[in-house]
Amino acid sequence: MSAEGLPILEVKNLSKSYNSFQAVKDVSFELYPGEILGLLGPNGAGKTTIIHMLLGLTSPTFGEIRIFGLNPEKPRQREKILGRMNFSSTYVALPYSLTLRESLMVFALLYGVKKAKAKIDSLIEQFDLKDVADQPVRTLSSGQMTRLNLAKAFINDPEVLLLDEPTASLDPDIADRTRTYLKEVKRSKKIAILYTSHNMQEMEEISDRLIFLHQGEIIARGTPKDLIAKYRGEDLEDVFLKIAREVRP
After folding, report:
1. What are phi and psi of 104, to 5 degrees?
2. How far apart are CA 248 and CA 246, in angstroms?
3. Among 3.40.50.920, 3.40.50.300, 2.60.40.1180, 3.40.50.10470, what is the CATH number of 9-84+158-247?
4. Which of 50, 56, 65, 204 has its CA 20 to 30 A from that of 14?
5. What does the angle CA 87 – CA 117 – CA 113 come to, to the nearest 5 degrees?
6. What is the pLDDT of residues 16-74, one digit of tens each?
7. Exposure pattern of 192-223 as b/e (b: 16+ CB <10 Å)?
């Protein structure tokens, strides 16, 4: 494992209920600098709800979150946390009337990025967006929107990165380049990355550790190699199917 030192993110006994429905049930885990932790599970397993709680978009019903040792439930501490982290999600819309470049500039200004133009140019190059950089966001394809969201996620050089389906809609070449980039920044900058995807080959390739969620609960965890051995799977997709079928009512 590439993780080192003390955890940069800690979740203890995290739960979230909506009336009688419990979306997340007593979830605990840590995320370390220089580590990619994958969240696995079928639709409705609680992955996105956990990310929303980590971002402070929704409050836990019970449990504790610490990021950089700070509590995101406290407004002053949340502001400090959010300045040092970022996220990408295919479900988040960016300002449609702005150009791609203008949209990135807005976020650069919000984060107080120094040499913002140079940073934006670098991200546009990295995520192969040069040809559409001056087009309105509303004209972008789904794959281009995904790449824009990824570029936005790196605008402030975050220490913690939350990625919800980051390669959805990307063609195989761009998806592979994105994974290579994520592994490189994880190694070189010791970024801590929490990662969700339904692409099991991708999760096996990129994750240092995995947590498998079902109906809001953690039912398995370990390295990809350990989980494949434990469940006697041929690969992680085989393991996913075995675990999902074990717990299916």
Report:
1. -65, -35
2. 6
3. 3.40.50.300
4. 204
5. 50
6. 999 989 999 999 999 999 999 999 998 889 999 999 999 988 999 999 999 999 998 88
7. bbbbbbebbebbbebbbbbbbbbbbbbbbebe
Note the residue count of the chain.
Answer: 249
CA–CA dist 27, 42 (Å, integer):
16
Q: What is the pLDDT of residue 169?
A: 86
What share of residues in the chain are helix, strand, coil (percent, to 5)? 40, 25, 35
Beta-carbon contacts of residue 110 (< 8 Å; ≥ 6 apart): none
Name the residue ranges covered by the structural domains of the chain.
9-84+158-247, 97-157
